[in-house]
Each structure stands twice: as structure tokens, then as C-alpha cells.
Amino acid sequence: MKDRSSWMIAAILLICGVAVSSCRNAKRVIPIEQDATNFIAITDVVPDAIMEIRYYSTYNFVGTRVEGYLEPIALMTKVAADSLHAVSDDLKQQGYRLKIYDAYRPQMAVDHFVRWAEDLADTAMKPYFYPNVDKSVLFEQGYIDARSGHSRGSALDLTLVDMATGKEVDMGGVFDWFGLESHPDCGGNPETLEYRPNDTLTATQFQNRMILRSAMLRHGFKPIDTEWWHFVLANEPYPEIYFNFPVKR
Fold this sequence. Notes:
- Helix content is about 30%, strand content about 15%.
- The protein has about 250 residues and is of the alpha+beta class.
- The strands form 3 sheets. Strands 2-4-5-9-8 form a 5-stranded mixed sheet, covered by helices on one side. A two-stranded antiparallel ribbon has the order 1-3. A two-stranded antiparallel ribbon has the order 6-7.
- A hairpin with a 6-residue loop joins β8 (about 220-225) and β9.
- α3 packs across α6.
- The protein starts with a helix and ends in a 16-residue tail after the last strand.
- About 35% of the residues are buried.
């Protein structure tokens, strides 16, 4: 009887240990040395997409190249990239090309954002990206977080380029602007696509945002409430895994 009790206790501990281990690993950072076999460069499936990878440059809210961006390319999971291909084909029929600002973002880059946000003295890029927001509230108001959906590999930040003029479409605001002006419902109802006259966006600017949003929704992406440029694949393949390999071929 004693042996049976000991066996049962050991079995329970083993099961509990597996459960705890699974819980701890539910949101794990993949070691940098592991290969991203299910990721692909966006230009491999959308070759005419324009790359403006802001975190590879110094023109971003941090003001320096962000850790982990070793090449100015955009990576995504293969399934997300295939859906983006459908978005591109849709928008090209309407006269637009895609411009990509960011896609897969390694956890090391997110950690860089956190370190930057904690350094309240560094406000070099405040006039360009957050003139109306105090840096001390960036965590509180959700502009910076310790985790990003980009690190799961199926989210991206993008805009449109007019094929006739070769110029960026006027969205009434810049990428990575910290403020209510970046919200999709600024100037109208994104569900009904109805413009609401206001002092922030013109009817054309709001409609341009909705052109991008509508195409992304049609092909399996979902938006967020705070950024008109950000979308994530609704059925993302890694909803609870945060990757950490660098952005490079």
C-alpha cells in the first residue's frame, strides 16, 4: 500500500510538473541560435512591396538603429506572407502598392524599446513622434510594452503608395505617431467607413486609411484600436510564442 501511495504521489507530481512547465513555456522566447524555418522575406512573395524598415534606420522614435535589425528587410511567417500576397493583388487592382515599415520584430528589439522608454532623459525624437505625450506615461498608456505581437511573426506595419504618382498615400499622420490621431476611429467610424467631419483628418485621409484597412480585413488580417498601420493575421500560427532571432536573410 505504501509503494502504491508513493507511486501515485510521484505520478501527481510529474503531471503537475508538466503542467507548470507548459504554463511557463506558453509564452517563451525562442533562443537566438534557432533557425526560423517557417519565416520568409515578404519580398519573396510580394516582390514589388516597398521596404522602409524604420528600425533598421535612425528615423524612428528611439533615434538609433534598433537591436536585432541586421538587414533592411521584412520577415513574416509563411502563412501570413501568403495572405499579404492576396492583399497586394487586391490593392494593385485599385492602383496601390504596399510599403512596409516593420513586420517580424525580435524580442531583443522590444527589450531595446523598453530600455529606451525607461530612460526619461532621452527625448531626442519627441518632436517627431510624441510631441504631445510625456515620455513618463508611455508604459501606462500602452505605447511601449514588454511584449509585442510583432515578435510572434504574423503582424506588420504598412501603408500604401499610389502607383500613378509613386508617392505615399496621405493617411493624415505618420507611422509610429504616439497619439489619438493614430487611432483608426479618428475622424470616422471604421466599421461603417463613415467619415465624421473633424479638425484632424480630411475625408480623403480617412478614406485612404479605410482602403488599406478594408483590404487587410478581406484577406484574413485584423486591426487594432490604436494604430491605423498595424495588422495581424487573425489565424496566426504562433499565437503564444515570441521569437528572438535577428532580422536578416
